[in-house]
Amino acid sequence: MSFGKGLSRKPSQPKGRQLEDAALDEVRNLLGDEPRRRDLLIEHLHKIQDAFGCLEARHLRALADEMRLSQAEVYEVASFYHHFDIVREGDAKPAPLTIRVCDSVACALKGADALAAALEAGVDPAKVRIQKVPCIGRCAGAPAVQVGKRAIDNASEVSVRAALFEGTSDPVVPDYIKLDAYREAGGYKLLERVRAGELDAAAIADKALEAGLRGLGGAGFPTGTKWKIVHDLPAPKYLTINGDEGEPGTFKDRVHLERDPHRMLEGALIAAHAISAARIYLYMRDEYPAVLQILKTEIEALREAGIITTIDIELRRGAGAYICGEESAMIESIEGKRGLPRHRPPYIAQVGLFGRPTLNHNIETLFWIRDIVEKGSEWFASHGRRGHKGYRSFSVSGRVRAPGVKMAPAGITMNELLAEYCGGMEEGHVFKGYLPGGASGGILPASLADEPLDFGTLDKYGCFIGSHAIVVFSDQDDMRDVALNLMRFFKHESCGQCTPCRSGTEKMEHLLAAGDWDKTKITDLDEVMRSASICGLGQAASNPVTSVLKFFPEEFEK
Questions:
Q1: What is the DSSP-derived secondary structure letter of residue 91?
Q2: Strand, helix or coil at 518?
Q3: Which H or E element spans position 470?
């Protein structure tokens, strides 16, 4: 039957991208017996990305069919995360090897831009892709590079090319305390006592409160209080562990896990038992491939040893999104969604993972549980200075002789930390200023380096200690460039959910890049972002900018 010149009826077929049998078979073989649950979508996307080096449209179509999801749902999740490479029909696949050059603030100080340019000029783009990326958590070894999954600290063009020549792109797993060695030193004895009823939840929560243990991911909420709140709520309940430390300057959790992972895992099992959790979900950032391998190995060892019993630990892998360090965004990601922060209230303690009461902890917080219970609350509390309680793991980088994770007393000053733990400033550099709490904590001048470093002590200056990430600057650093670097990070990492943050970070970055430091414009924009953004990213993103205006007026006399 004719419908006009040159037109004829074609057999009907569904609209949109068609399902390819070959792609469906490949996806099914990759997933094997894994459940096709909605919350495992990101894990399944990782399997495809790892196997094929990208996410081809045909595989996304097949995954949607296999998981009984719409293509839009799969695409919106895959496109949200930086580590997924979506390739549409007809587009070229990315090079088989990616070199990620960190260009966040500590690495920028040590020449990351020049390193990236030198590498890009000397590689075959069909074989190697050079990417400038946000913080990869190796600030003490700046400039830091990842060749595939292999980290290179204090990287140079020579060391990166040597890795390429050797074909070494797998992660290097450092020596760490494995399960047998940890148990020989008394590990998991405390967990046995808790399970036997010798110590109840209330007693451990009280010890944590007496010790002054707080959430050490940045918020600083008293740990014992969180336990008591969730303990009294109805089952089922969950424990989530936030290992997504993406704040530029922060790397303490990675170091703890690369040295002594079971100290955190035992703390997690104790916390889960204390609140009667049904399951533990450990969310770890994808930038830490060695840590992911360690955790996978040691969690399986715990299962085989019978130490993991009724409460299992499920390891979830992030996909390159700083926003997932925010607890509700992390929960969304664990549920297999985009990492968009939730509106609060309700708080996750009441309505958290899968809509159930949820206790969320940072890696370092759980790391201290065993020591506090075994050695006593007073032991931990007594190590603070100036009336502050406890130890802190300071991630220190920048212009210091000895960067790294420094186990120092809460309430220590920057001058003390610099002199006693970091060997002073680098040769030829004069102390000028510092980030006291990572990218969002603001910037303080050297004249305020005698203030105690702890929660609440820096509020009067518009700054905060956050995750205890210290980046030190010298007289050779332009603080306007520092602020611009940090603002570019926040612009890149904004999830885009709310206009004040999405548009505010873009506008602020545009002003700084153009050299427009008009105080009235910046103050107005800062007020809108701070008061109207949904989560802490937008609320604190302008802190470095306002700090430079307030504390470094000499920068504008150049």
A1: P
A2: coil
A3: strand 469-474
CA distance 149 to 107: 18
Q: Which residues of the chain have pLDDT under 50?
A: 1-9
pTM over 0.85: yes
Digit-coded pLDDT (tens) for 41-66:
999 999 999 999 999 999 999 999 99
* DSSP code at position 214: B
Q: b/e string for 235-259 if b means 16 or more Cβ within 10 A?
A: eebbbbbbbbbbbbbbbbbbbbbbe
φ and ψ at residue 234, rounded to 5 degrees: -70, 150
The answer, yes or no, to whether the previous bond of 452 is cis (omega within 30 of 0) is no
Q: How many CB atoms lie within 10 A of CB 147?
A: 26
Token pair recorded at residue 428: 């030829």
Residue 471 three-state SS? strand
- Pick the closest to residue 227 from 31, 358, 403, 79 (CA basis): 358
Question: Which position has the token pair 């549980």?
Answer: 369
C-alpha dist (Å) from residue 109 to 139, 511, 553: 10, 22, 21
Q: What's 459's DSSP letter?
A: G
Element (DSSP H or E) covering residue 182: helix 179-184
What is the pLDDT, as a whole number, of residue 513?
97
Q: Which residues pair with 20 in a beta bridge?
A: none
Residue with tokens 């000895």: 402
